[in-house]
Design brief:
single chain; CNF1/YfiH-like putative cysteine hydrolases; six-stranded mixed beta sheet; binds zinc ion
């Protein structure tokens, strides 16, 4: 399964085939109001943008996806593996009301009045939905979260909270930094192998200088499959965030002189 880049006016986003039954999208950097290194659809205040711009960008993107901006519930990502269940009592969290989470790298809900928002600038977005679209989830897989099997924990959370069978779940992976650009020291593959076992080996390629190229999307897809999701139910966007400066922000490419993209998903 695959994806398309959809356009609504100047706004563009990745729309995954596997999630076509629910409102969702992964933002590209076009169509917002932010300037300079945050140009233009930036969703974070951490890298020098103004609150006014960021709020306006949320309104623009919510409208493009057909969701209420007041329904957006923002995660608090710190490269851990805590996944929280939320409902409409947390609509607006982190945007219109103070952020209640201290550590929250993933969200799940079955409340149609709340939309899940997670943030990216090279890390791997993972989204899931039940076949009827009544329960959804999203998780942020940086290398630490990926090593901590956050994609599998997301599947487990959908099971325990909503009684979902993993073999029925629809899922998406990416876009994130590709194997072409994700060069690491041995700490990354070592940590992944320690926690995930041999499965990581085929996604890690040693290179001449003692470093490694790592396929983050590939590992997260494999973790979803290991957790029981069927391969044919997973859409992958393999576009590299670091290689495509016109489409995506990238921490590897620009450090903190960048904005952040979001993945948004809303249940029926
Ligand atoms: Zn690349």
């Amino acid at each position: 399964m695959s994806y398309t880049i959809k356009s609504v006016g100047q706004v563009q986003y990745v729309d995954f085939d596997s999630l076509s039954h629910v409102r969702h999208g992964f933002s590209l950097r076009t169509g917002g109001v932010s300037q300079d290194h945050c140009e233009s659809l930036n969703f974070t205040l951490n890298t020098g943008d103004t609150e006014e711009n960021v709020k306006k960008n949320y309104e623009i993107f919510a409208e493009a996806l057909g969701v209420e901006s007041s329904s957006l519930c923002l995660s608090k990502q710190i490269h851990e593996t805590v996944i929280e269940r939320v409902d409409s009592s947390l609509a607006g969290n982190g945007l219109y009301t103070p952020q209640v989470f201290v550590s929250c790298d993933g969200l799940v809900t079955n409340d149609p009045h709340v939309s899940l928002v997670t943030f990216y600038a090279d890390c791997c977005p993972i989204m899931v939905a039940t076949p009827d679209g009544k329960a959804v989830g999203a998780a942020h897989g940086g290398w630490r979260g990926t090593a901590g099997r956050i994609a599998g924990l997301l599947v487990n959370k959908m099971e325990t909270e909503f009684g979902c069978n993993p073999k029925d779940l629809k899922a998406s992976v990416g876009p994130c930094i590709g194997k072409c650009c994700f060069e690491t020291h041995c700490d990354v593959p070592d940590s992944m192998r320690e926690q995930l076992g041999d499965m990581v080996d085929k996604f890690v390629e040693p290179i001449e200088n003692g470093k490694f190229m790592v396929d983050l999307a590939g590992i997260n897809r494999a973790i979803l499959i290991e957790a029981g999701v069927k391969p044919e139910n997973i859409s992958v966007c393999d576009e590299c965030t670091c290689c495509n400066p016109d489409k995506f922000y990238s921490h590897r490419r620009n450090g903190l002189r960048r904005g952040s993209m979001v993945a948004v998903i809303t249940p029926k």
